[in-house]
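Input record (one chain):
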Amino acid sequence: MKIMCDTNVVMDVLLDRKPFVADSYKVLSLCEEQKIAGFVSASSVTDIYYLVRKYTHSAELAYQAVEKLLEIVQVCSVTDRDVLAAFQKRAKDFEDCLVSVCARSIHCDYIVTRNKKDFEEFDIPAILPSELLLRGI
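The corresponding structure, as predicted from the sequence alone:
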């Protein structure tokens, strides 16, 4: 199975956001154990760095977070074709649309997110971390 992890799933773990951290941690653990192939988009990596630095006020902690993330998941490139495809869709949320386009380009089975409704208009199924865990992987 191949999944695209939305930024909020990663941030739940990095910032210990309760009550979401437990399921998100389990999903990332499955990726780390290579029981599923986990990805984040290249644009998500920059968002994650920015958010960790913003909330911790530490560039070093942000770099450490990204370093750990890169040990757990693979980074999906964002090409000019991906950006153009997302742009042409004129979605309500460009960033989520770009994540969806990237997930489709690498043939992900799911986008794992806490905000399923943000991905309803796209053609990759979005599921909650808890729903992925219920699949018995």
